[in-house]
């Protein structure tokens, strides 16, 4: 059969609630097979267009039938689930009946609609269930007595490069092995359970079993659903009996793959992490992308010699046949329609565009049954002889050591042994009749409790229903609360609890739920130290529960109480359906983070989403730290990026820390033994959290993880300079050529005072020499288009916490000669009151309006860092476990916070002016009281300007007074004019006006005799009274200005 390209379809979904809340804009358009995407950041840019086999518009234009099925509204181009099946699923089914291998895989970012297209939701079944249903309908229509059908079903999950059988309760440590068939070269999963099925109902029940298994694993933190690949394999055999009595087997393997979320590996920003390479978060998808690129190059003939890297991941090994092999393959790419997901959606489109270039060579898998059996027996004989002869003899290879040869020999022996066992299992299957195997499987299937019979009980009895971050896994686990007591705990407890949970922070005896005729109460088991939250609040004592209350057991087990006996007890403000997102927002609110989206900008909403995403991860990692006793604690920190790096920002930015360009969502790790801290960016933390999950899984598997090398420990980090806090130095004084000296508060990310920093800002020449005070200007625009230099001096600091005495330095960045320059002071060690006296001259070759604007509304952020060292902790602390250390640290911080608040209140009572640098509290960390500091600087500046003007005015009054006391004969106007002019020209625009008044006076003096000082005084008073503050006419102006000037 000639080569056939992979068929590619794309499908765009409706806006989800998150996108609606953020007023997202539509960026996807479809016309026929063409799909185009517009860049929201460049609206005038031409949209990027792609052509695919199918472009499905499912964004809008639909209506819901009475049975819940969505269908196109009149005249719309909406693509329903049925249409997608008819184009894609029907083709898979037809090819299976013809004997071809088929593969269908869904690709796209988390939440883009992959699972909806593959599995569906509610009454809107996806491709997989419809295909299975239609397959059995076709089988039931068969009337040929010489043709029989055998269908087997398997379901597995790939997470962290480990394979887990979702139809088996017992999975080996490290997952199932993936082996390569030495004859065919294809990979298969060893000991994967393949269940015979005889109807769609049986497949549906097995799918629900696999989904429940995924849910339990996800909740126990063995896997995160958005990072796992799910592979459903249906083997469809047709055995056809000929007239001569021989049988021919036509076999088709259908792989239906729901891939993990395709978030770009760089979108989390895990840069600079020493353990980044060790994380397998996106390894499978990255390997799949490399395989697709290599196959596309092969198909296009752009490169002659290409090694397709199938072996780079478990996923690509299992998809080897689907991509570039013996299979008819379809890819469906799920698209988000929203502008906020532009980058990921564009990446998906490019991925799909690459995949359509791949060509496969599909052939009909049809062979006589007796031939297949004969070949299996012959192969088994060869394999047995190889094993009996002492294994495989390895010849010396170039560059291979004896140890490597021995390792390779053992690996090949294992593969041969595994293949021998697999062949024997296949022969045993052929010897056992299909009907016997099917009957045995049906007996097992009937025992599976999928909750179908529980629907009636849900209307009569209270129960707990699970919540999961994956909507497909929510509502899967149900626990009914019988009258009396229902115990919650681990299965290794004695007696065994009624509800068995496992995973992080679940104690043997965790909690007890009481049901007294529909009145539900819950209580933690005394002395167990268990963690339970009700509606986001920690459970203390015994508490009554209401309908729809949210319960979090440990770190991951989230449930909703449904009480049909007391539905009126539910809070009226609750939504109709409680979701995972709602429960997480509730927890975030209790922790002090704002969760409402009303009035938030796009950037603020992004920060908020990142916080809500990372909060449950931080709780999870803290729980692992406690369980493994790692003496580390973690907390979410929102910190200004400019402050973190020590940059300069405008006042409008500084007072609005919620700008996405300024706020970084970070996580602070703290060593509870010596107080050392580290700030991890969000991406680095997500990578570390993934590695911490791996470590915890090894711990659960029984491995000793207490003595791993520190370089491999995700909880360990080498010491680094820690940000003590930041200070904002505002620059208004530079606009008037005034020097400025102040003692600034150093505030940490929580807004708590960590010390003071004394700095000086003064205009200077290019060599740093301070300019004369006479350079003061009243109008900053006089400085435009001239060179400008100023000197920033960091003089001294005073730090409160003794642990920073090992060394202190200050860093900041500033634009010098048109280029950003990083500046840092020398490190001063062994003191909490360092003297830096570090000066930096900053030059502006030609002052522009933007520089003046920055002087007026900008600031330089000075970041104060402390040197950290691995010091020996207090011996008393070594006796405490991680949980006790956390509690002690929290108590100490709370006590210090209370003391600091009391001290600030006392300072306020003593001197409210001295407290002008107080802070305002918001949800964001690293608030440096920018508004207050800015106002304080303005006050100081105005005071300085007033003092300068007052000083000049006093000098002019002194000159006028001296002149007025002279006899008329000694009154010489030229020297008097020069003296006043010299003072006026050095004080700015306002006093220069006085010089113009003196010029008018000189002109009048030639023609009019000047009256005495007293007369002038009287005249001035009269004039002032007459004008009453109004501007006099031009004629009056000449008369009043001269006399007013003399008075001044």
In short:
With 1048 residues, this protein is α+β, with helices and mostly antiparallel strands.
Which terms would index this structure?
1048 residues, alpha+beta, 10-stranded mixed sheet, 6-stranded antiparallel sheet, 44 strands, elongated
Terminal Cα separation, in Å? 106 Å
Low-confidence spans: pLDDT under 50, at least 5 residues? 265-269, 391-398, 645-661, 911-929, 987-996, 1007-1048
Q: Structural class given helices, strands, pairing?
A: alpha+beta
Range of strand content: 15-25%
Instruction: Report mean pLDDT, rounded to a whole number.
Output: 79
User: Helical percent range?
Assistant: 25-40%
Q: What overall form do the CA principal axes indicate?
A: elongated
Give the count of helical stretches. 25
Count of DSSP strands:
44
Largest sheet, if any?
10 strands, mixed
Explain the layout of strands and helices:
Blueprint: E1 4-5, E2 7-12, H1 17-21, E3 28-31, E4 34-37, E5 48-51, E6 54-57, E7 62-64, E8 70-72, H2 81-98, E9 102-107, H3 114-118, E10 120-121, E11 124-125, H4 127-140, E12 147-159, E13 162-165, E14 178-180, E15 187-189, E16 195-197, H5 200-219, E17 229-241, E18 247-258, H6 283-300, H7 314-318, E19 328-335, H8 342-355, E20 359-360, E21 366-368, H9 369-388, H10 402-431, H11 434-446, H12 455-458, E22 463-467, E23 478-480, E24 484-489, E25 499-500, E26 509-516, E27 519-524, E28 532-534, E29 537-538, E30 542-545, E31 550-553, E32 557-562, H13 580-590, H14 602-628, E33 632-640, H15 641-645, E34 648-650, H16 651-654, E35 663-671, E36 677-681, H17 682-700, E37 722-730, E38 740-747, E39 753-764, E40 788-799, E41 808-816, E42 819-824, E43 835-844, H18 849-857, E44 858-866, H19 875-878, H20 882-910, H21 930-964, H22 973-985, H23 989-1005, H24 1013-1027, H25 1034-1047
Parallel strand pairs: 2-6, 2-19, 9-18, 9-19, 24-25
Antiparallel strand pairs: 1-20, 3-4, 4-5, 7-8, 10-11, 12-13, 12-16, 12-17, 14-15, 17-18, 18-21, 22-23, 22-32, 24-26, 26-27, 27-30, 28-29, 28-31, 31-32, 33-35, 34-44, 35-36, 37-44, 38-39, 39-40, 40-43, 41-42, 41-44
Helix pairs in contact: 2-4, 4-5, 9-10, 13-14, 14-17, 21-22, 22-23, 23-25, 24-25
